[in-house]
Amino acid sequence: MGATTRFDAVSRELYGAAPGEFVALREWHVGEARRRGEPELADRIHRLRKPTTAAALVNALSRHPEAEVAALVELGERLRGAHRDLAGGRLRDLTHERNERVGALVEHALRLADGRVGEPVRREIAATLEAAVGDEDAARAVIEGNLTTALRPPDLFDAAWLPSRSAPARRKSGQAARREAERRARAARDEARDAVRRAEREEAEARRRTEAARAALDEAERDLSRLSR
Fold it and tell me: According to the UniProt entry, which residue ranges have a biased composition of type Basic and acidic residues (predicted)?
């Protein structure tokens, strides 16, 4: 097993452990690497950051098949497609499904913690799962299960990523997300304007038809009145 493969295996083991066990387990692996004569691997392992409570619980979710985190990620792909297509009905249905799945996963995470976490952690877990729905990079990070801190949905544009994700990459991702959000907003505005114009035209046509019908009614009533004399 090469050093990179060993590092990946150690990283996955550490981020799958309980937060209280992280530091001791990390230092044990550091010692093992040094004993094998791999100081660079030992240094890489030592630099791994202990996850926050929310990140640790999301990492745990990714390791529980019954949590169906992959299904949430797949839903995110469909939801982003519906956003791009401006498919209103499908978007509403998928948004409802997203809310249900995120809520269920948050409750699953809280059960893993035996309910020993407060509302701030609950919100961070929910935000991280929302990020996995809205952003492909966040989805990969959640699936990999090596998070060190909570993520934020893409609309906030300052999500906290894994250490391996560089700051320029984060900025690039944020800029791309902003451009996509602006494009969707402009498209939605244009669609709404078109809908208003159509409604105004239909309203004007309806007024003309109403006026014509009233004129015909008035004329019919006058004819009837003359015939009744």
Answer: 177-229
